[in-house]
């Protein structure tokens, strides 16, 4: 993302500018925007404890950048404030998530990944927001981020007033639940900061209790090594056998902790049509998805977050789901069709799934 030169404009009414920025953000399709400072000391300590405990698993990039993740001015020198934005992602008409999870012959894809990948879309909107600011104040320093750099986006979103970090470690907005993406505009403008959101989870622990793999090991502590989102997306290679059965039919990500959250009764439909489900992935049949060739996988997932798991990971994940599916000749035939797949990882998971059905 382009970075303009440092601020050279004369003094501005920064309170008025902050109000304009929030209005412009909404006009550009963001559901909300707020402004945070750059002090993240407690969050840095929390991150370091999480890394020390090894809860990041194979996500080495979480530790690779040292303190840049928790010190915005180290990542982007000159940063004084962070403009944090959010965008709702579940469009109207999406098949009911609980219904898909209860249909063991269907593949469950996390609701955020059903349509167009949000990264480029949000970066483009943030760039347009920066251009509007530039038109108002002249040259200023900025950089836009959407999961593209070491950024503590949830902590910044909380400090910008967009929500609090729930016990499942996801940001929750009091009037809009948690089904939204986050993006940031680091800037050298001395804007007034918003009041940080306060927590409202209370004694509720539904997210902890419902987690299929018990990945939320304590309130506000997620062991990614057990998280289905990590297992189906980030983890390369073999999924630990003890965690395969609890995965059920979840083939890309997991939403259980959000689905059960009472605050999501306030969740709002996405206004962005590009987030609409593609290729009926909001409840497609496992045997049909398992039959995709690599060329078909690449073609059908073009511009989608699902690409991230890769074709091998896609087949691995679906093999596990088929192992958890009801016993049928169709399921067994589908698994047998991949029993001699070139990938050792795919073959291993297919063999596990077939053994599950032979045991019934």
From TrEMBL:
It is found in: Cytoplasm. Pathway: tRNA modification; tRNA-queuosine biosynthesis. It comes from the Bacteria. Pfam families: Fer4_16, QueG_DUF1730. It catalyses: epoxyqueuosine(34) in tRNA + AH2 = queuosine(34) in tRNA + A + H2O. GO terms for molecular function: 4 iron, 4 sulfur cluster binding; cobalamin binding; epoxyqueuosine reductase activity; metal ion binding. TRNA binds at residue 236. PROSITE patterns: 4FE4S_FER_1 (PS00198), 4FE4S_FER_2 (PS51379). It is an enzyme of class 1 (oxidoreductase). The keyword Cytoplasm applies. GO terms for cellular component: cytoplasm. [4Fe-4S] cluster 2 binds at residues 211, 227, 254, 257. HAMAP family: QueG. Belongs to the QueG family. Monomer. This is Epoxyqueuosine reductase. It comes from Dyella marensis. The lineage of its organism: Bacteria, Pseudomonadati, Pseudomonadota, Gammaproteobacteria, Lysobacterales.
């Amino acid at each position: 993302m382009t970075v303009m030169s440092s601020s050279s404009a004369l003094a501005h009414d920064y309170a008025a500018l902050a109000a304009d920025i929030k209005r412009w953000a909404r006009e550009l399709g963001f559901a909300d925007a707020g402004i945070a400072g750059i002090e993240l000391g407690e969050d840095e300590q929390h991150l370091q404890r999480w890394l020390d405990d090894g809860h990041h698993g194979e996500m080495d990039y979480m530790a690779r950048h040292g303190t840049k993740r928790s010190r915005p001015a180290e990542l982007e020198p000159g940063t004084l404030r962070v403009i944090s934005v959010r965008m709702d992602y579940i469009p109207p008409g999406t098949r009911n998530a609980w219904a898909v999870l209860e249909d063991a012959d269907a593949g469950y894809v996390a609701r955020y990944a059903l349509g167009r990948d949000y990264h480029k879309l949000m970066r483009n909107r943030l760039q347009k927001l920066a251009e509007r600011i530039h038109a108002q104040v002249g040259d200023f320093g900025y950089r836009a981020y959407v999961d593209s750099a070491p950024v503590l986006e949830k902590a910044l979103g909380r400090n910008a007033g967009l929500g609090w970090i729930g016990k499942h470690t996801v940001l929750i907005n009091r009037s809009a639940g948690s089904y939204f993406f986050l993006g940031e505009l680091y800037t050298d403008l001395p804007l007034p900061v918003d009041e940080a959101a306060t927590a409202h989870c209370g004694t509720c622990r539904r997210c902890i209790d419902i987690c299929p793999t018990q990945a939320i090991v304590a309130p506000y502590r997620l062991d990614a090594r057990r998280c289905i989102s990590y297992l189906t997306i980030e983890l390369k290679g073999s999924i630990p056998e003890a965690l395969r059965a609890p995965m059920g039919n979840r083939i890309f990500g997991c939403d259980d902790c959000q689905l059960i959250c009472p605050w999501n009764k306030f969740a709002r439909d996405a206004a962005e049509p590009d987030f609409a489900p593609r290729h009926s992935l909001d409840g497609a049949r496992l045997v049909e998805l398992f039959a995709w060739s690599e060329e078909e996988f690449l073609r059908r997932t073009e511009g989608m977050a699902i690409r991230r798991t890769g074709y091998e990971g896609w087949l691995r994940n679906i093999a596990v789901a088929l192992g958890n599916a009801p016993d049928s000749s169709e399921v067994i035939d589908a698994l047998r069709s991949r029993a001699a797949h070139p990938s050792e990882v795919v073959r291993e998971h297919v063999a596990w799934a077939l053994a599950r059905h032979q045991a019934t």
